[in-house]
Amino acid sequence: MKTESGKDKMFTLVGKGVSPGLAKGKAFVYIDVLQRDSELYVIDRAQIGEEKARIEKAIDDVRQGLTIDAKQIESKLGKQSANIFLAQEAILLDSFVIEEMKKILEAELINAEQVVRTVFRLLARRFRDMNNAVLWERGDDMDDLSRRLLLSLAGIHAHSLENLPGILGTSIEILVYKEIKS
Asked: Taking the model in full, what pTM does it have?
């Protein structure tokens, strides 16, 4: 890794490799959007409409993405495999979820990103607190929806790994990703 002074700096990363051996080269350390810090700022009452519109646009973007993903998966793997995206779309459009975001926005007066983080983190925790494997997976769905909404709010419409410069065969030789399971 190049430092500001231009000197190389060596890092040792410990983890589970997908292939055996020692790796040396340029690395990309991927940090999931749910693990990144995003700016928290307080809004005034006059900005509620603007933040609400941002959330509504993100919901519409994600809904469209889920519909496209469902169609693509259905054509490749069948309707049953595509149903997960349709279920996520139903969760996203559920009046309880929409009302929770509105309630948090108006009560806490925080930006759209923090509203999404707050609501979907609470929903994921509720599912994971239930002692049922199927319901636990709904917590993962909440994380997926939160991730999609946060990326949309940030203006990112492709997975951040899709646009890595030369992940296959050019400058980046190592991909590091920390999988986090709650």
From this structure: 0.70
